[in-house]
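Cross-posted from the bioinformatics board.
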Amino acid sequence: MLKEGNHDYFLWKRIKAGNGQAFQELYDRYADILFSFGMVYSRDRELVKDCIHDLIFDLYKYRKNLAENDNIRNYLFKSLKRKVLASAKKNLRLVYSENLTQETGNELRETDADENEDQQDQLSRINRLIGQLPEKQREILNLKFQLEMPYHEISGIMDISVESVRTSVYRSIKTIREQLEGKDMILFFVLMKEYSQLN
Amino acid sequence: MRDDRENIHAEDLLSDDRLLQKLKERKPGFADKANREELLAVDILDVLVERRTKITSQERSELEARVQASIRRQQFLRILTWSAIAAMFVVVLGITWFFKTSNSSGIRQFAESVQVDQITNTKLFLTQGEAYEIGAQSSEITYLSNRQEVEVSSEGKSVVLPNSDPRVQQSDFERNYNMIVVPYGRRSRVLLPDSSVVWLNSGSKLTYPGHFEKNKREVVLEGEAMFEVSHDKERPFTVLTRDLDVRVLGTVFCVTAYDDEDVASTVLVKGAVELSYDSAIPGFKRKQIMVPGTKADLQAEDHQLNQYEVDPQEYTSWKDGYLSLKNATLESIGKRLSRYYNVPVKFENDGLKSERFSGYLDLKGSAKEVIEIITEITGKEVVEDNGTLLIREKQNPL
């Protein structure tokens, strides 16, 4: 980690100096994760790619005004998030749609030959429940498990404490678990209620 | 132990990095040993990981090419911008050069056509005819008020030469300039067409139009001259030298600008002048105003102009045939006399050069006679040596 940070520090210095090789290196290192990260905030692949292009290009254009920064990752993620949210809003392109995420989840699962139907149901239920979480909680879950980001990094991107991130993860999973476990109970209560009303 | 595991829910397993790591590193057959919460945690984890949207390798390389193209275009634009700035700079320089030269290039070019050290007699170049040579040591040149003739007087004789008719427009602009060149050992006094008076000291050259323009009076000087400029508010009088331009409205001043000296200086007797000289930035001029009783020295090389108080008499007395010296070094006196008389003056050793002398020197005698006055007072002696005057310590006659 320290080595990585060090590497980024020198990469940043070279970017500030306008070293063309440095921009290539930055792209090689960060293109994959930046795309996946951007897709957390939008479902529009083209929009996310546009934003990554702008992000690196701006870095080149305004490299002389860049602050001394030893955390490129944090800078890149925060900037990209801002860009994606801003352009999504501006262009009214695509709002975060749960239908799409559900489809994606199902599609991928269906290809698995070993999966039985119960398991399939369980996974799509989980996927739907994640989609029903409040936006902030869903964002944190995605960063934590999709992108495998450590707590301190999420805390840096979202400007909240590490403890808040951990608590949010805990609460989100607990909600999903309780809703999965309680689904039969809820159904039972609903039926009871309807039954009593009939009487 | 088993109870502990039962109490641990999926949210505990997934929110703790150490436990999470164990789930991620689970081996095949994990499902058989795992409890309900562990299986649930794995399911949630699987769903979340599956949600990750990956960039395809095609998208990745397309985007890479786009970013590279943008950066290259920006680099090109930057070079283009810099070239544009550079081009504008050249234009600005060109404009100032154009104005500077359009103002005075013709007269400056004409001034360059004759070198002071290539002539032995004073020469007067008029608008018409060949150069007129003056053999006498000192001469007076007067532009007559009929504006068509010039009178040259020396040693009691005088001759009237025709100059151009101001009513006839000259197509060849160059020929409108007049020039007087005074070699070493000679002096001349010129009454210009605007009735300004110029005393030219030895080794000097003055170039001026045969008829001054309506809005300005420009002359080019190399060497030393004393100006008594006739007052004319409408037509400012400017003395152009290699490094220093002196702009006047009507005043008496002396300009020293020998090409072989690094310092161009101006002594103002009365009135006011404005000095203009190149700043360290090419194409840009700096200006300073002078007040009477001061001397301004321009170090052309480092664009420094220093002004200080002086007795103007000291610097202008040569026009009346004497030198007024106040604490002047023998070296500077030697230099001035050698120009005045066109005789090389040398020193036996450098120590003599820095000795100082004050007083009046009458310049009616020969160079040797004048220098003897100084050496007598300072306890030195002067000897003629192969056409050179050598100043040295007095030799003991014993």
